[in-house]
Automatic annotation (TrEMBL):
UniProt-listed Pfam families: ABC_tran
Species for this entry: Solibaculum intestinale
Keywords of the record: ATP-binding, Nucleotide-binding, Transport
Name listed for the protein in its UniProt record: ABC transporter ATP-binding protein
GO MF, any single term: ATP binding
Superkingdom in the source lineage: Bacteria
Keyword Flavoprotein applies: no
InterPro entries named in the record: AAA+_ATPase, ABC_transporter-like_ATP-bd, ABC_transporter-like_CS, P-loop_NTPase
Family under the similarity heading: Belongs to the ABC transporter superfamily.
């Protein structure tokens, strides 16, 4: 199974949202990482046929998804960014409604809703109204509607937006559970959502793909350029001015400053540490300048 995005471009008037984007996706989780405005939603909206592309092609197993039309939509699951759900609908009614939109028969819908609700851990809450659901429950029912038809391609736009860390972990575990035999593309600007479950991370910046790599390979790019120095609190400001700082942690009367630097920082006994994907995010996205200090 293969989804190939070839040379995709899209502008809104003068604004280039995507520029010559090419990607090949096979079963597994892909994290699409980029800051606000990078073009993540535009890419997802094109794959899900909610926005028209200007040029390029998308093929599923060699066939254009735009020619496949309905046949592609049948194997596609889409969870849009968090939105207002129908507050007066019960969970059951909402899923039943989505099942009908997906063209499922009543009997099919009933079976799939029961199974899917169990999977997302909402089987005990289907008779409650969505207006009374917590943020995490709302996200889980949105995931449930996306996977009702057992899609082969699953597109998730910021699935953990607005959730607390406990719910985030829950959603993450759920995604890795349902992703085994599917192509899953998750757009996020939260590194921890995808760092441990993505087989590859795609970095998108200003509509262009910067890289598509395994998380460990991505982190490895910064090997030898991430340091932790122990500084007195009054010197933290000058370190922040001189370097890109990815973390500060108090240690007794000193502060451990995690920073990115081309060469070991002067004046401090320090050790380079293993880079993380979060360091890479900071390196690529936090500031406009691309070179390390
Ligand atoms: N309907 C539209 N009309 C005009 N410009 C748009 C439209 N949709 C998106 N854009 C612009 O295209 C660029 C890419 O936007 P997009 O929403 O795809 O980015 P994103 O990475 O999903 O951002 P976010 O994380 O904020 O959702 C941005 O500069 C945005 O302002």
């Amino acid at each position: 199974m293969k989804l190939e995005i070839q040379n995709l471009s899209k502008s809104y008037g003068e604004k280039k949202a995507l520029s010559h984007v090419s990607l090949t996706l096979t079963p597994g989780v892909y994290g699409l990482l980029g800051p606000n405005g990078a073009g993540k939603s535009t890419l997802m909206n094109i794959i899900t046929d909610n926005v028209r592309l200007d040029s390029g092609e998308i093929c599923f197993n060699g066939e254009s998804i735009f020619k496949m039309g309905k046949r592609f939509r049948k194997i596609l699951g889409y969870m849009p960014q968090q939105q207002e759900l129908y507050p007066s609908f019960t969970g059951w009614r909402f899923l039943n409604y989505m099942a009908a939109l997906k063209g499922m028969t009543k009997e099919q819908a009933k079976q799939e809703i029961l199974q899917t609700a169990k999977l997302v851990n909402l089987d005990g809450d289907l008779n409650r109204r969505l207006g009374g659901y917590s943020g995490g429950m709302k996200q889980r029912i949105l995931i449930a509607q996306a996977i009702l038809n057992r899609p082969q391609v699953l597109i998730l736009d910021e699935p953990t937006a607005g959730l607390d860390p406990k719910e985030r972990i829950r959603i993450r575990n759920l995604i890795s559970k349902i992703a085994l035999d599917k192509i899953v593309l998750i757009a996020t600007h939260v590194v921890s959502d995808i760092e441990y479950i993505a087989k590859e991370i795609i970095l998108l910046k200003k509509g262009e793909i910067l890289s598509q790599k395994e998380p460990s390979a991505l982190a490895e790019e910064l090997s030898g350029h991430v340091f932790v120095v122990s500084a007195p609190p009054e010197r933290v400001g000058e370190l922040q001015e001189a370097y890109r700082v990815s973390n500060l942690a108090r240690e007794g009367d000193r502060v451990l400053v995690r920073l990115l630097s081309q060469t070991p920082p002067k004046d401090y006994p320090n050790q380079s540490v293993s880079p993380t994907v979060e360091d890479c995010y900071l390196y690529h996205f936090e500031e406009e300048g691309e070179s390390l200090s």
